[in-house]
Amino acid sequence: MFTGLVEMTGVLVNLHGEHLTLRPSKPFADPQYGESVAVNGCCLTLERELPGGTLEFFTLAETQRRTNLGRLKPGSLLNIERALRVGDRLGGHIVSGHIDAAAPVLDYRKMPDGDFELRVALPELLAPELVEKGSIAIDGVSLTVIEVGGDFFTVRLIPVTRSDTALVERTPGSLVNLEGDVIGKYVRRQFELRSGRMPEPKSDITMDTLREAGFL
Question: Which of these, 208, 130, 107, 116, lies nearest to 159 by C-alpha position?
Fold first, then answer.
């Protein structure tokens, strides 16, 4: 369990087969074998610390296929958050580290009012769970939804988010990992069960979008 408050960034060193290695931007205090760490919002298990402080994680083929981790190149900036401990402040929102979809950034710009806006493609499977002023995790960063359109949503980035997270590197066309609000998932599920309207199986339009964009 995580909060979406990024503790540090790291640089992707290598992704060889199922093993991902990264170099944290600052010392990773007392790393524990088997502990859960959110990397770009994706919950991974720490396998070992290598010489020089580099960390190695195991990544399933499914993880690489469904998230942006399998498409990033060495040198890419990653967000890192260690698992929440009992008694810690829940400063963001409840984040499980289970990515729902990877979607492309549509726009990243400074608005006339001085705010920085990130506009992201909205996957069909997430659309029912997103509401204005609700929460979403983008590459593991807890953010507030500003606008929800038919095929997009927007968030605004405060200065610390722009300077201290990997979102500073995201540009139009970049893939970002998305995790919807877990409370919204349960509300949606209960509504479906009580109404008797179970959703029809849908194609993963996010993956279709990736194919059309040339990512797959």
Answer: 116
Q: How far apart are the C-alpha atoms of 81 and 155, rounded to whole Å?
A: 20
pLDDT of 211 over the 90 cut: no
Which DSSP state fits 30?
Answer: S
Task: Let me know the angle formed at the C-alpha of 163 by 159 and 167, rounded to the nearest 5 degrees.
Answer: 100
Q: What is the pLDDT of residue 216?
A: 46
Tell me the C-alpha distance between 199 and 60, whole Å. Answer: 28
pLDDT of 162 over the 50 cut: yes
Report yes or no: 37 and 44 within 8 Å, Cβ to Cβ. Answer: yes
CB 130 within 8 A of CB 145: yes
**Phi and psi, residue 172, nearest 5°:** -50, 130
Mean model confidence pLDDT for the chain: 89
Beta carbons within 10 angstroms of residue 30's beta carbon: 7
Q: Residue 34: what residue type?
A: G
* pTM given for the model: 0.86
Bridge partners, 148 (sequence order): 153
Phi, psi (5° rounding) for residue 29? -65, 130
- Rounded to whole angstroms, how far apart are CA atoms 214 and 195? 39
